[in-house]
Amino acid sequence: YTLTYTAGTGGTITGTVTQTVSHGSDGTEVTAVASEGYHFVQWSDGVLTASRTDTHITENLSVSAQFALNQYTLTYTAGTGGTITGTVTQTVSHGSDGTEVTAVASEGYHFVQWSDGVLTASRTDTHITGNLSVSAQFALNQYTLTYTAGTGGTITGTVTQTVSHGSDG
């Protein structure tokens, strides 16, 4: 009998892909190997293990390894002082791009950076090869109060003060 093993899109087969075996004999091991960005799903006859050795052969066998493109999750969150516009949870295929999200500061705050060091408030992550989870970081605005005396007078107290948004001098 003939045992034939093929690979669908996204992978290859290691081992002898065409085997001839006598009635009741065993084949040799073959393994479905996923290409980068793919994962093994199953063989066309329902076998769920990537490696297989078919035994006690009583008829021809022809099966194909099935692979699927990896899917990744992009998660965007906002820290205290802001929100995110755009789709905050995205599912993308290996090598694909996400869609744009923007960190929007609340009143009295400003955007600082994303937790992975990206310094622009708007971002579109591209060529995704793994899960991504990042948070927008915001900071409370700080203001400088400066007091100066005109001719003929002086100021008592602290003439230069730094205060947070909404605070008092």
Q: Which structural traits does this protein have?
A:
16 strands, 169 residues, 4-stranded mixed β-sheet, single chain, mainly beta
Explained architecture:
The strands form 5 sheets. The protein has a 4-stranded mixed sheet, with no helix packed on it. Strands 10-8-14-12 form a 4-stranded mixed sheet, with no helix packed on it. A 3-stranded antiparallel sheet has the order 2-4-6, with no helix packed on it. The radius of gyration is 31 Å and the shape is rod-shaped. The model has no long low-confidence stretch (mean pLDDT 96). It is built from no helices and 16 strands. It has strands at residues 2-7, 11-14, 18-20, 30-34, 38-43, 51-52, 61-69, 71-78, 82-85, 89-93, 101-105, 109-114, 122-123, 132-140, 142-146, 160-164. With 169 residues, the protein is mainly beta.
